[in-house]
Automatic annotation (TrEMBL), chain A:
WD repeats lie at residues 1-37, 38-79, 80-121, 122-163, 175-206, 207-251. The lineage of its organism: Eukaryota, Fungi, Dikarya, Basidiomycota, Agaricomycotina. It comes from the Eukaryota. Residues 2-285 form the WDR5-like beta-propeller domain. It holds the Pfam family Beta-prop_WDR5. This is WD40 repeat-containing protein. SUPFAM superfamilies: WD40 repeat-like (SSF50978). Gene3D superfamilies: YVTN repeat-like/Quinoprotein amine dehydrogenase. Keywords: Repeat, WD repeat. PROSITE patterns: WD_REPEATS_1 (PS00678), WD_REPEATS_2 (PS50082), WD_REPEATS_REGION (PS50294). SMART domains: WD40.
Automatic annotation (TrEMBL), chain B:
Residues 249-272 have a biased composition (Low complexity). Its main location: nucleus. InterPro entries: RBBP5/Swd1, WD40/YVTN_repeat-like_dom_sf, WD40_repeat_CS, WD40_repeat_dom_sf, WD40_rpt. The keyword Nucleus applies. It comes from Coniophora puteana (strain RWD-64-598) (Brown rot fungus). Coiled coil: none annotated. It is found in: Nucleus. Residues 240-291 are annotated as: Disordered. This is WD40 repeat-like protein. SUPFAM superfamilies: WD40 repeat-like (SSF50978). It comes from the Eukaryota.
Length: 288, 501
């Protein structure tokens, strides 16, 4: 049992969480009060994503489906079926007319959100896809998988443009574009986070100190006050690194189990984190 | 950053059909962001297509007869449709519903042959209209200056433009230049008239010998070149004069020579007045220019010598439309061939050399439009399909293997002297650490899109057009612009079943 993912809504008013209990819960991002519980998946949920206008939420589940939820009515508006195994990760493009998802069937799929139809299936990896997302203008897609490869795709044509790989390819847990899309931040299960320059295919920063050997931990950028990299850790802590110096500048302690998910608030200095098994809590950390 | 995309972009024109949209259209236009296509249909409906999903996302039903032209506002928020049913409708795509709200309906008393937005006024409240009667109007819908002004020659001018039968030649094309400062009008006598948009005064008159009636115009983005399509089946390219005589900026100026025709702008006289439905076309209230009778202005008169002529030397087909590539280096011409769908492409930078003819099958072509950024073309076929042409990029298998590079020919590898030397591990680690000390910028992009993705809200790019010339004209067009500098978003509407469209 674990809380698998946390996402702040685009305007920052709500925090959505999803867990292995097949439920999505929406929380007030400032008070922590529960607003709504959404149920509909037949198996545990691995990832959720907000559309850019905050009107829809998409969820990826072990039941091989993706459900689109209306945030006006708090009900299901569509179900996307096509993955042949667990759906593990998904994200909207900035215009939110497309959704990209990846899963244990080793494919990356691009969906037409309005029609609920699969537009393209990329035979992307040779192991389960662990993270996939669009860049800031929706022209590129980055994906990573347990095969240790990070691939960058042309969102329009579905062509592979580039593969980023380290010498000994450890399982890649998480990947996302930097806000300006010039870099990708990738977490690997050798307890390392790396910042890659997409253009030169070179690793420009390495962040270490945390522990990540088993789970697909998420990592994120914090840009609301200074620039930091934030990640959970398997030693129940949350690590905050300075983006430039790569020094650990703070370790947040409080959880009692692996910190699987972290999320940064879009405009406030707030971090949300969630843990698993022994400590099924969501914590909000505020910079005062 | 997007250099990652298509690094081999040496071919700058499309070569193959990427997909077609079953739009039932007779005309199709890309929006300025290049993400959507608006298609006008002969049954009076218009549709907006999303090029990402290749699906129709908005259905605009407002006309009862065929649509003759569609135009996008600068920030893609407003869509204009003109129809043979005498109406021009401006749609607001920021509306949350489908069909979106109509912002304005402008009614005339004749079929509308073409209509377009002022290229600079962001609020899309200045519209240029050509009617089937050969009249051209500039409709100003702004609150402070509501007016419907006819763009016409005054009596003195007419003498020179009368054709053999003694009738005044009709206006057959009307288009803003890319800066919006001038309106270019083509006539049935083969003349290009240039009017100053703000004052509606004639500032230039170019005779094009042998051209015959004008059919269509297109400009390069910098506004320096014009191509004309006329009934003599020849496309001509002209370099436009660097400037036209500037009309009086205020109320009074006098030229001693009466030959320099005074050409005040006028309102439509009562018998020409159209039903003013929802437009504030009040006769005699010409917002900008009431004092036409005293303003005099110089008119640049000359014969323009085409820098290039394009025609089909073999079958001598006529042309429907032509469209410049975004950089103005290439020109695409849609052939009016009754039995083939052919787009001719010429290379302007290489002396107008013929490059290729794209063959889109047997369905005759109606319309051609070049994508605003990419080497892509939308061509409309008579059966209503809109073909989207692109340059197919070959699959690069090398991209799947990290650290590999594809080479066309074998390269003899030259080993560096110290390449396989064993280096002290601590020194290596130190060097790596030093390399990682370089500052990285994760926020600011090198492209003009804001990094937060708000560039995707349509409507941020504000700078535009050549800045030279009297700023007064830009200020005039910019007045009342506040409302829609705000970014907007095309809401994604969920479709319940596939038959919805």
């Amino acid at each position: 049992m674990s809380i698998s993912t946390l996402k702040f809504s685009p305007n920052g008013s709500m925090l959505a969480s999803a867990a292995a209990d097949k439920l999505i819960k929406l929380w007030d991002a400032y008070t922590g009060e529960i607003i709504q519980t959404l149920s509909g998946h037949a198996e545990g949920i691995n990832d959720i994503a907000w559309s850019a206008d905050g009107e829809y939420l998409a969820s990826a589940s072990d039941d091989k489906s993706i459900i689109l939820w209306s945030m006006d009515l708090f009900e299901r508006v569509n179900t996307l079926e096509g993955h042949t195994n667990f759906v593990f990760c998904l994200n909207y493009n900035p215009r939110s007319n497309l959704l990209v998802s990846g899963g244990y069937d080793e494919t990356v799929r691009i969906w037409d959100v309005a029609r609920g139809k699969s537009l393209r299936v990329l035979p992307a990896h040779s192991d389960p896809v662990t993270a996939v997302s669009f860049n800031h203008d929706g022209t590129l897609i980055v994906s990573c998988a347990m095969d240790g490869l990070i691939r960058i795709w042309d969102a329009e044509t579905g062509q592979c443009l580039k593969t980023l790989v380290d010498d000994d390819n450890p399982i890649c847990s998480h990947v996302k574009f930097a806000p300006n899309s010039r870099f990708v931040l990738a977490g690997t299960q050798d307890s390392t986070l790396r910042l890659w320059n997409c253009q030169s295919s070179r690793c420009v920063k390495t962040y270490t100190g945390h522990s990540n050997r088993t789970y697909c931990l998420t990592a994120c950028f914090s840009v609301t006050k200074g620039h930091y990299i934030i990640s959970g850790s398997e030693d129940a802590k949350i690590f905050i690194w300075d983006l430039q110096t790569r020094d650990v500048i703070q370790v947040l302690e409080g959880h009692r189990d692996v910190v699987l998910a972290v999320a940064t608030h879009p405009n406030q200095n707030i971090i949300a984190s969630s843990s698993m098994e022994k400590d099924l809590t969501i914590r909000l950390w505020v910079d005062e | 950053m997007n250099d990652l995309l298509n690094p081999f972009a040496v071919v700058t024109y499309p070569t193959a059909v990427q997909f077609s949209l079953y739009a039932g259209a007779s005309i199709a236009r890309f929006d300025p962001s290049g993400r959507y296509v608006a298609a006008g249909r002969p049954d009076g409906a218009a549709t907006v297509w999303d090029l990402d999903t290749r699906a129709s996302i908005r259905w605009l039903e407002g006309h009862v007869k065929g649509i003759t032209s569609v135009d996008w506002s600068r920030n893609s928020r407003f869509l204009l449709t003109a129809s043979k049913d005498w109406n021009v409708i401006i749609w607001d795509l920021a509306a949350l519903a489908d069909p979106p709200d109509r912002r304005t309906t402008i009614r005339f008393d004749a079929p509308v042959l073409s209509a377009s937005f002022h290229p600079r006024n962001r609020q899309a409240r200045i519209v240029l209209v050509l009617l089937g009667t050969g009249e051209v109007y500039i409709i100003d819908l702004r609150r402070h200056a509501r007016a419907r002004s006819r763009v016409e020659l005054v009596e003195d001018d007419n003498a020179e433009v009368e054709d053999a039968t003694g009738r005044q030649s009709a206006m057959t094309v009307a288009q803003f230049d890319p800066s919006g400062k001038y309106v270019f009008v083509g006539t049935s006598a083969g003349t290009v008239l240039v009017f100053h948009t703000r004052t509606k005064i004639l500032v230039g008159r170019h005779r094009v010998p042998g051209a015959g009636a004008m059919k269509s115009f297109d400009f390069t983005r910098n506004g320096r070149s014009l191509v004309t399509n006329s009934v003599d089946r020849t496309i001509r390219q002209f370099m436009l004069p660097a400037s036209y005589p500037s009309p009086p900026s205020s109320t009074f100026s006098q030229t001693p020579n009466p030959q320099r025709s005074p050409s005040p702008s006028r309102n439509a006289s009562p018998q020409q007045t159209d039903g003013h439905d929802q437009t504030p076309a009040v006769n005699g209230v010409n917002g900008m220019h009431e004092d036409g009778d005293v303003t005099m202005s110089q008119v640049l008169e000359n014969e323009l010598e085409p820098t290039q002529r394009f025609n089909d030397p073999i079958s001598r087909t006529a042309w429907h439309t032509m469209s410049y590539s975004p950089d103005g280096q290439l020109l695409a011409g849609g052939a009016a061939d009754p039995a083939a769908h052919k787009i001719f492409i010429w290379d302007i930078s290489h002396d107008g050399q013929f490059v290729t003819a794209l063959d889109g099958g047997r369905e005759p072509l109606l319309d051609v439009h070049w994508h605003p950024m990419k080497s892509a073309i939308a061509s409309t076929a008579k059966d209503g399909n809109v073909l989207i042409w692109h340059y197919p990029t070959p699959e690069r298998w090398g991209a799947f293997a990290g650290g590999f590079e594809e080479v066309d020919e074998n390269v003899v590898y030259e080993e560096r002297e110290d390449e396989f030397d064993l280096e002290d591990e601590s020194a290596l680690a130190l060097r790596k650490k030093e390399l990682e000390d370089d500052h990285v910028d994760i926020i600011n992009g090198d492209d003009n899109l804001p990094a937060d993705g708000s560039g995707l809200l349509n409507g941020s790019p504000c700078a535009m057009g050549p800045g030279e010339g009297p700023e007064e004209d830009y200020d005039w067009a910019d007045v009342d612009n506040e409302e829609d500098c705000t970014p907007w978003r095309m809401k994604v509407l969920m479709v319940d079943d596939d038959d919805a469209y």
